[in-house]
Protein 1
Amino acid sequence: MRIQISESQFKTLSEVVKKNNKVECKCGHSWDLSDGGKDPYICHECGRDNEKKKDETAKYIKCRNCNKKFTQTIYKNKKSTPVCPTCGTVNKD
Ligand SMILES: [Zn+2]
Ligand SMILES: [Zn+2]
């Protein structure tokens, strides 16, 4: 059996697929992946990277030189040196 759908039905189906591409952040903010821009997994409310779900200990740092956000990983309660991957500035407190 072959199923034929009209163009409007196809559009509806496409929209459903898009809606399933949502990112939900722990802070309660959610958004469409397609609306996320360059970093679709980064929450615009709290700055959390929702792509790396395993890396719960990662901390967000905003580079004081280029203002780009990057993660500082904490290994065995020891913080790694917060070096900006974009410009190489060491962002120490
Ligand atoms: Zn958030
Ligand atoms: Zn930087």
Note: Residues 25, 27, 29, 43, 45-46, 48 surround zinc ion (ligand 1) (CB under 6 Å).
Protein 2
Amino acid sequence: MGGGGVMGLWTAVAVVIGAVVVVDGLVRWVHGWYREAALGGERRSQLPPGEMGWPVVGAMWSFLRAFKSGKPDSFIGSYIRRFGRSGVYRAFMFSSPTILVSIPEACKQVLMDDENFVTGWPKATVALIGPKSFVAMPYEDHRRLRKLTAAPINGFDALTTYLGFIDRTVTASLRSWSSHSNKIEFLTELRRMTFKIIVQIFLGGASDDTMRALERSYTDLNYGMRAMAINLPGFAYHRAIRARKKLVAVLQGVLDDRRAATTKGFTRSSTVDMMARLIEVEDENGRRLQDDEIIDILIMYLNAGHESSGHITMWATVFLQENPEIFAKAKAEQEAIMRSIQPTQQGLKLRDFRKMEYLSQVVDETLRFVNISFVSFREATKDVFVNGYLIPKGWKVQLWYRSVHMDPEVYSEPKKFNPSRWEGLTPRAGTFLPFGLGARLCPGNDLAKLEISVFLHHFLLGYKLTRANPNCRIRYLPHPRPVDNCLATITKVSDNY
Ligand code: HEM
Ligand SMILES: *[C@@H]1O[C@H](CO)[C@@H](O)[C@H](O)[C@H]1NC(C)=O
């Protein structure tokens, strides 16, 4: 081939690359114009920096690429790099024009403003959790049902009621895992354990078959939660949709049994569980909840009530085991508490947890460090200004809790696991958001902290975790977890407690 041919080839390559760049730029410009033109010139000029990207996918590729390649921070990082530290950006995600919010003050403003913002979860997520659950129901219904369902799981009396069951479930689980030297998937087992607890609280327990069916379906449901919403065989979202149908069927069965038992005049247990409350509640017009409403609320609660707690318990245990000094300090505190308990006392009491100051710091630091609820969704019902930028009516808002928790201006050395940073610290509003904030603050926050603390209490006093693959790769969606689900052995190391 002569020099001319090579030159020709390079020219062709240059022309093609040039054409791609031009077409790419043109497509982005047209998509941006299509999404934003209706705002009019003035409102458009008040939008935060950012771009709509390509039609359909928008920022989804770079979002999924960042999370799947093990560098989740590089997603918001790329906005900071390209558009500066405005903390508020515009993008196109989950099929909607979206404002990304990544700084504490702006997160707080959005979360506390019920007048101008409602929940705005992606359609695909709502389809999985349930259109009649909290993620999508109207404001007034949400207030009413939230009051009904949050009171029985929060506060001193409620937690006192559950403490015994949690304590027994935790000790039985630890005993069973340490009774053999086989490896267990520690995360999977912890999810099972937290699931057992939430099923007890909401359904008054369930048969082994029902438990297994529900557990399996919830795993599939969660794997599809942050995936691309492609409802075709072979895709995670498709499996998740099928899992939801199974959950509906199983819970409909439980509900039917319950209604049948009530008609016959006998109830399953002496305590009133959440299922009973949901069946009996009436609104101001005397209307009761339909089966599909009860089922969606249960699907939401049973999921929210075990997934995150299971993950946080696993990470807290791993961090304790990996940091001998932190372990020793936490263990010393638990030993002191054990010495202060009267020998006649049966099991732990709530007042014992009030004394677990350092353990509480370990749990808070884990909640911050694990980036568990990395994002939350809202939608603007009116034009609102945040940090000087316009959020147009109808646009979605993503609150990046993750960026807040990893902001070096809020937490010095944010990538260091350091429970002592919480000593004597009351975080500024909007800077610590593992449970959200405002009207949609997690109603299970105290229950979750209690469960996690009960587990760590027993673990610290008597057990050791040995991971099979301590440097296992982490997968970040839907929640950060080692890909081996923390394969490990649990060994009992002390008999004198
Ligand atoms: C470590 C464990 C947990 C974490 C990190 C967590 C985190 C969160 C967060 C961040 C939200 C707010 C989402 C938003 O801003 O829209 C939330 C909401 C919620 N959580 Fe939790 N949660 C945990 C445990 C629990 C437990 C144990 C329960 C059940 C008893 C629960 C039930 C719920 C429910 C029902 C909502 C929706 C509230 C509403 O929309 O009004 N969560 N959770
Ligand atoms: C949370 O994110 C930070 C920053 O990327 C990272 O250092 C930390 O390891 C993450 N935690 C988990 C459990 O993945």
Note: Residues 119, 134, 146, 153, 300-301, 304-305, 308-309, 312, 372-373, 376, 434-436, 440, 442-444, 447-448 surround protoporphyrin IX containing FE (ligand 1) (CB under 6 Å).
